[in-house]
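Table S2 (text version). Query chain:
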Amino acid sequence: MGDIVRCALISLSRKRLRTALTVGSITIGVMLVVIVTMISNAGKKVVNAELESLGLSGLSICTNSTLNSGGQMGITPESLEVIRNTKSVVTAMPLIVQFAGSLLKDTQSDTLICGIDAGAVQAISLTLKYGRMISRGDVRAVDYVCVVDETLAKQAYGRENITGKTINLQVFGVEYEFEIIGVAKAGSSLLQNLGEIIPGMVYVPYSTLQTLTGRTNFDQIAVRVSSSADIVETESQIIRRLERLTGYKDYFRADNLSLQRDRLGGLLDIVSLVLTVISGISLVVSGLGIMTIMLVSVNERMREIGIKKSIGATSKRIMLEFLTEAVVISLIGSIAGLLIGGTISFIGISIFGITVPIRLSDIALLIGFSLLIGAVFGVYPALKASGLRPVDALRME
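Corresponding structure-token output:
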């Protein structure tokens, strides 16, 4: 086999420019596949991070309608304790939402007030940039403190860190002054791009918002589960326990946010696969180029083939030589394409601060597919060369 490889390399080195151009076509094909794949993986990672920042990684428990007895709509504190005591529940944070007006410095804007408990970082993936988060002490003391998102801070002060400032929140026509104890990262850059459609977010202790609105129940409960494999079972347990507690059927609803995120992830996988297949078509075109060049090589080397056969070379030997040439071209092109495409993708993705893990299995699969292309499209020229009769081959000039 070593002699066959050596002969193939010698034959390729005779027509270096033609060999280089053929290798270049494979290089471009592999490079496109690598770039598209890495960009697709980076895009999926960014989207998943955005969904995580929106809290789409657990369960959301809420109600469908008001109680038949005329009670308040929402989840009671007793129901919250039942949820917290459910197996596999890591955190269960009550949420109360209230639209309000706000005045920060000289900037008035519509604001969404979110009443939260301590531990919001774990429950709804809230990212704190400056200051501190709402604490259990703030909740127990019903303090008038808040965390604002960076969007409000930039609008009013032109900077992000405004801890220690105050903001006036207008609830049901009455203004209340809150001290800003922290600044959180806006929930998603996607939301920030919507501009005025999405109001600024202000996070306050849920007990404080209950006092301002006169509400005792919660709008929803954000639940984090210990393992994603337990989400479906935990969801069923929570609903059953809440129905036993209240005696009402079909009153509570659990939204499996992780399932929705996974479905979107599956859709992204399909899009990534389609893009990869489209870019892979260029590899097939490169394979046609290999076939064309190998057919030209067969016509140019007929006398050489005739001489080899005359001195004892078998048809199998001739076929393997030409087939090896096609595979070597594919191997060199695929390695070059991996290096160039990987470097370009790594530099481009790094500019945006994204890291994408490189799996050896993906590299091996791509190289294997490239070699398969070379072998498949090199079969016909190899068979044509091996099928020549010595007399006919020697007759050719």
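Notes on Table S2: The chain has 14 helices and ten strands. The first strand starts at residue 59 and ends at 63.
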